[in-house]
Amino acid sequence: MRIPLVIVASLAIIWSWLSIASFAQQPNSASSANPLPQAEASPDDVEGGKMFATTCGFCHQDGGRHAGRGPKLSKSERSDEYLIERIKKGKTGAMPAYGGVFSDGQIIAILAYIRGLDD
Asked: Burial letters for 21-40: b for 16+ Cβ neighbours within 10 Å, e otherwise?
């Protein structure tokens, strides 16, 4: 099955990137006011595709590969930080906030799923 391999590979890349990003931040720098989540994944978090399908798939058609009520997410040029914040906080009148629904690890798994999409 192709999706789990893509998700696992994407998670490995994202986790290493998050580690480097947090190491590079100075404790008193202005950028530390809004740091990326230091997420820990549980075995349940690895199924970003399933979480996406059951929660996001209604608006982001064909698993995020086409626009529907929500935009196409495949090959998005938005930053990881932007997508994480949008998932957490939503967009008034357009997308609900899922920060209280998903853990940071689950949001990272969904992000990994989105980054692994192809057309």
From this structure: eeeeeeeeeeeeeeebeebe
Taking the CB of residue 97, how many other CB atoms lie within 10 A of it? 14
How far apart are alpha carbons 43 and 74 in whole angstroms? Answer: 25
pLDDT digits (tens, 9 = 90+) for 22-53: 444 444 444 445 555 555 555 555 589 999 99
Side chain identity, residue 47: E
Region of residue 85 (phi > 0: left; psi between -120 and 50: alpha; otherwise: beta): alpha
Domains of the chain, CATH where assigned: 2-24+44-115 (1.10.760.10)
